[in-house]
Specification:
With about 80 residues, this protein is an alpha+beta fold. Helix content is about 35%, strand content about 25%. The chain has three helices and four strands; from the N terminus they run E-E-H-E-H-E-H. The chain is elongated.
Length: about 80
Amino acid sequence: MRVVTFGEVMLRLCPEDFLRIRQSIPGRLEATFGGGELNVAVSIAFQGGTSSFLTLVPDNPLTDCLAQELRKLGVDDRQLM
């Protein structure tokens, strides 16, 4: 059985060294993806299940990074539209 979750993706930007965003720009920000439905899909994959995440995203480099991260975590990314 495959579980398909759907929802929006959140992108978290985190500055280094516990700085505030204004204090770190120009500089580096760590980007991580999240969101309730996405986290459920990842949890299912981590427990050995088959999961897929469905959402509507633009065609850009951030979406490419999201797809790569989903594949790395074991979540089917073919439902990204």
